[in-house]
Design brief:
homodimer, about 230 residues, alpha/beta, Rossmann fold, 6 strands, EC 1.10.5.1 (chains A, B), Flavoprotein-like_sf (chains A, B)
Chain lengths: ~230, ~230
């Protein structure tokens, strides 16, 4: 109770299975007394492209545009675009970040990848020697909750599903110092029976009830590739 | 000679190291007698978001929007948006796809991920039982060429760089039946001496000279995780 949660949500359709998972998380966490904020990326028409527009006013080096350098400099002088400052404020306030999305190509949809690219800039999320366990977003938790097109069996046939979590969980969250809870994966809801879909939704509600007692995963290569 | 190459390029700045790598590829491959096409995503202001706008005219199910289903149906009736049809035409004609980009968060920049999400739709790149070695884009080669922020040593400290290639090379290219050449990685050009940068550019020219003699990698979990 009193915990703050940011849900970054990337689905176009409120009636989708992802939409139901979002609704459940908002309701259950609110019921627990958490304060829940949702960034509904498609509804916000969130910009995924990393461009010069993200920097208000003059550039540090207008001869040769370097996005990483420019956003770092802009962050330090409070010169990032409004939408980024707003998302960074939400992240800063949150105790837990939940990413809710359908897996696209073994990965996040581009709109969510764009949120990572543009919001988690140097100076805000990490810095020169401040990364991994020293990252700037320590004392926060994260959870990747996603649906897949393929069944669990189909995924397992081609190697462990954990392989695809490495860039997201380790490369982004762990790099910023954010602890990572077990992912929540709903396999192939589009091909499941109505009963099975209800079971999957109930399992998410159930998990959320004891979420705050969970221990983060061990963010080492062994967790992913053993 | 006579081979067709599509370079999908994702950098904002022509004067960047990625810009130099692109220029080298265009020049060297053209010199070999290849026909080279470039999709310069930032210059095209390529749209990375997967939305209803990608479908021209009526929806298959306007009650509940499902991007995968709608683009599949639209593909079959020639109803995808113009920019997608144009990119698919370029892919269809190409013998080799080169992706040139700076690594953002252990992954492609969002604008390039959006190209994957929107261009490689069902019916065009894969189909119900047509994936992996049966994928619809067989007899094509691909090559991921990218720069990193961190040095090789820094990457190696946290597990093999191949781990992050799994979603891109296996999850996307291999899934569509496209063969994958060894990735081309330029580590931390921003922190390298002018001499070292020149060496890296020369190495790319050199590799391109014998590119057509290369054998694709073995796209199995063993290549990535051994």
């Amino acid at each position: 109770p009193g915990k703050k949660v940011l849900i970054v949500y990337a689905h176009q359709e409120p009636k989708s299975f992802n939409g139901s998972l979002l609704k459940i998380a908002v309701e259950e966490l609110t019921k627990q007394g958490c304060s829940v904020t949702v960034s509904d990326l498609y509804a916000m028409q969130f910009e995924p492209r990393a461009t010069r527009n993200d920097i208000v006013g003059h550039l540090h080096n207008s001869e040769e545009f370097n996005y990483g350098v420019e956003t770092w400099e802009a962050y330090k002088r409070g010169g990032l675009s409004k939408d980024l400052i707003e998302e960074q404020r939400k992240v800063q306030e949150a105790d837990l970040l939940i990413f809710q999305f359908p897996l696209f190509w073994f990965n996040m949809p581009a709109i969510l990848k764009g949120w990572m690219d543009r919001v988690l800039v140097q100076g805000f999320a990490y810095d020169l020697s401040k990364s991994y366990d020293g990252g700037l977003l320590q004392d926060k938790l994260s959870l990747f909750s996603f649906t897949t097109g393929g069944t669990k069996e189909r995924f397992a046939k081609r190697g462990d599903v954990r392989y695809l979590l490495w860039p997201m969980q380790h490369g982004i969250m762990h790099f910023c110092g954010v602890k990572v809870l077990e992912p929540h994966i709903c396999y192939a809801p589009a091909h499941a029976s109505e009963e099975k879909r209800k079971e999957m939704l109930a399992a998410w509600t159930q998990r959320l009830k004891t979420l705050w007692k969970e221990e983060p995963i061990d963010c080492s290569p062994e967790w992913y590739f053993k």
